């Protein structure tokens, strides 16, 4: 029996996590849920942004399905999402961008597995006020942090029969930080002679992704570049409503969609749950329920192919209608 911590999140979080819970329950696996929450709504109720019960549940169950949590922009509390990744050392942010049959985009056969370093870089959020008119931000890159994410990308490539790893950097300008990340990548690549290694500057990467995304296979990069590239990749396959993700550490793994809390559509039954459902499929793989993960992916594809789609994909299905269709497709 697996117990999974479910963090509902806010904005569209409660709607999409409810969808994922219903769909996983319909698979009739030996799974129990520990439902908790964090964020502004919780703060207004309890006076705590992240109640102790959330940490206790994560540490006990070690596997988490998480909805998005709003972070105030330019003011207010720091990101709870970033804090959880740092606290539990969830260094590997895995964001696969795969074309999904049934979703029309201008590209086809996209199959890019993005590895984003998840605990360092500019996301350490260390900023210094020098004066009213000058503020500095620190970018932290460590050998340990770089080695483990680059190695994770190569190990994945080897295990899954992938041909190429592309490392994305800006070492022409950031010669020390990005330079070290790049050099570590070059060194590690020599241990994997069967996998082609290439390095590309982030600006060129953005252009190449739009012009010819099919040239990419496994991609590894630092925190901020990875965050931006994963939204770009989402745009190639149908948008943020369909791209899943996982934050993986040595002992704890948190599965969540790439998208945020989408406040403008929250509470309207409009959110596309595909991204969190695909994240849930990754969770099922992680806990060894690989057949069920595959069954879930197939059900999602067959629903989309049948034309049942939420409004972000040009359809008119509500979150609950789409969820019901996926459950029916599970058989
Ligand atoms: P967002 O991802 O929430 O929304 C961007 C656009 O995509 C909006 O047009 C939204 O309506 C659409 N969208 C996103 N998910 C969708 C879905 N499932 N179905 C249909 N349409 C969808 O990004 P935004 O607006 O920049 O951020 C909103 C908040 O979310 C911010 O507070 C941000 O910090 C937070 N955020 C949280 C994340 C997390 O908890 N892991 C990740 C990214 C952002």
CATH architecture classification name of the largest domain: 3-Layer(aba) Sandwich
Number of helices: 11
- Globally, the shape reads globular
Structural class by sheet pairing and helices = alpha/beta
Radius of gyration, rounded?
Answer: 20 Å
Number of strands: 12
Report how far the terminal alpha carbons are from each other.
Answer: 23 Å
- Classified by CATH, the class of the largest domain is Alpha Beta
pLDDT < 50 stretches = none
- What is the residue-averaged pLDDT? 97
In what range is the share of β-strand residues? 15-25%
Quickly count the domains: 2
CATH domain topology of the largest domain: Isopropylmalate Dehydrogenase
Which structural traits does this protein have?
single chain, 331 residues, Isopropylmalate Dehydrogenase, 2 domains, 10-stranded mixed beta sheet, globular, binds 1,4-dihydronicotinamide adenine dinucleotide
SSE blueprint and pairings:
Layout: E1 2-7, H1 13-26, E2 31-36, H2 40-46, H3 52-61, E3 63-66, H4 80-87, E4 92-98, E5 111-117, E6 127-131, E7 134-137, H5 143-159, E8 164-169, H6 177-189, E9 196-201, H7 202-211, E10 218-221, H8 223-237, E11 246-248, E12 253-255, H9 274-286, H10 290-305, H11 319-330
The structure holds 1,4-dihydronicotinamide adenine dinucleotide.
Can you put this structure into words, describing what you see?
With 331 residues, this protein is an alpha/beta fold. The chain has two domains: 1-96 and 242-331, Isopropylmalate Dehydrogenase, CATH 3.40.718; 106-237, Isopropylmalate Dehydrogenase (3-Layer(aba) Sandwich), CATH 3.40.718.10. Helix content is 41%, strand content 18%. The strands form two sheets. Strands 2-1-3-12-11-4-5-10-8-9 form a ten-stranded mixed β-sheet, with helices on both faces. It has a two-stranded antiparallel sheet with strand order 6-7. Helix 5 (143-159) packs parallel to helix 6, helix 7 (202-211) packs parallel to helix 8 and helix 9 (274-286) runs antiparallel to helix 10. It is globular, with a radius of gyration of 20 Å. The two termini are 23 Å apart. The structure holds 1,4-dihydronicotinamide adenine dinucleotide. The site of 1,4-dihydronicotinamide adenine dinucleotide has 21 residues, from loops.
């Amino acid at each position: 029996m697996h117990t999974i911590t479910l963090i509902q999140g806010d904005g569209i979080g409660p709607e999409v996590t409810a969808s994922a819970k219903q769909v996983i329950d319909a698979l009739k696996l030996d799974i129990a849920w520990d439902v908790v929450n964090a964020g502004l709504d919780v703060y207004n109720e309890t006076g705590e942004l992240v109640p102790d019960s959330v940490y206790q549940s994560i540490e006990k169950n070690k596997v988490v399905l998480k909805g998005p949590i709003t972070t105030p922009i330019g003011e207010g509390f720091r990101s709870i999402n970033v804090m959880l990744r740092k606290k539990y050392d969830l260094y590997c942010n895995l964001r696969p961008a795969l074309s999904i049959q049934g979703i029309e985009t201008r590209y086809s056969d996209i199959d890019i597995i993005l590895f984003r370093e998840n605990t360092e870089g500019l996301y350490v959020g260390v900023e210094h006020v020098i004066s009213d008119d000058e503020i500095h931000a620190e970018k932290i890159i460590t050998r340990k942090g770089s080695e483990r994410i680059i190695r994770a990308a190569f190990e994945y490539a080897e295990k899954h029969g992938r041909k190429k790893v592309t490392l994305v950097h800006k070492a022409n300008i950031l010669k020390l930080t990005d330079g070290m990340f790049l050099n570590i990548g070059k060194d590690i690549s020599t241990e994997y002679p069967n996998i082609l290694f290439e390095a590309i500057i982030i600006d060129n990467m953005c252009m190449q992704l739009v012009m010819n995304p099919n040239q990419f296979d496994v991609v590894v990069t630092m925190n901020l570049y990875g965050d931006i590239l994963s939204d770009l990749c989402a745009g190639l396959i149908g948008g943020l409503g369909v791209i899943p993700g996982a934050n993986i550490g040595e002992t704890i793994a948190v599965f969540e969609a790439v998208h945020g809390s989408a406040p403008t559509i929250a509470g309207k039954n409009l959110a596309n749950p595909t991204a969190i459902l695909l994240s849930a499929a990754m969770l099922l793989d992680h806990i060894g329920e690989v057949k069920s993960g595959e069954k879930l992916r197939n059900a999602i594809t067959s629903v989309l192919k049948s034309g049942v789609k939420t409004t972000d994909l040009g359809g008119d299905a509500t979150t609950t209608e789409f969820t019901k269709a996926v459950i029916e497709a599970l058989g």
